[in-house]
Write a structure and sequence with these properties.
150 residues, alpha+beta, Immunoglobulin-like, 5-stranded antiparallel sheet, 3-stranded mixed sheet, 3 helices, 27% helix, 36% strand
């Protein structure tokens, strides 16, 4: 076998190995980011403003109020839903409210009680925001959760 043929076979073998490796990496990476989260929201004040949904990826972001993902949908029905697509597997928590007057903030009365609907994952927080450990949930595959506005 000549040196030229041997070099050609080595290059072809190397190319096929590289393509095979890339294929394996692609298959495994698709499994890491493949989950969708559907948030079903009930007790919406129909026809009043928007629903603002904030999704947090850890305790630090939840405590700081700096959402990793967010969504805003029109509050045109008594029930609504929001979908977050292609989320990595892991723990998450949600804070949300209905901005009935579209002023981009949750309004409170003089006693500090919210005047607009609000909610958290796992439906906690009737008397204040729940701790992250009480609001967190796990996504391992496409998931749907329910949140009732207070």
């Amino acid at each position: 076998m000549t040196f030229k043929k041997l070099l050609s076979l080595s290059a072809t073998s190397l190319l096929l190995t590289a393509i095979g490796s890339l294929s394996i990496i692609t298959v495994f990476s698709q499994h890491a980011v493949a989950a969708d989260l559907t948030v079903n929201i009930s007790d919406v004040e129909e026809g009043k403003g928007h629903l603002l949904v904030a999704l947090y990826v850890d305790q630090a972001s939840y405590a700081s109020g700096k959402a990793s993902y967010s969504s805003k949908v029109k509050a045109d029905k008594e029930q609504a839903f929001v979908v977050f697509e292609n989320l990595p597997n892991g723990e998450y928590a949600i804070k949300m409210y209905q901005d009935e007057n579209d002023n981009s903030k949750l309004d409170f009365n003089l006693l500090g009680i919210p005047k607009e609907g609000y909610g958290f994952s796992n439906n906690g927080g009737r008397f204040g925001a729940p701790k992250y450990t009480d609001a967190k949930f796990t996504i391992k595959e496409s998931t749907a959760i329910e949140i009732e506005l207070h």
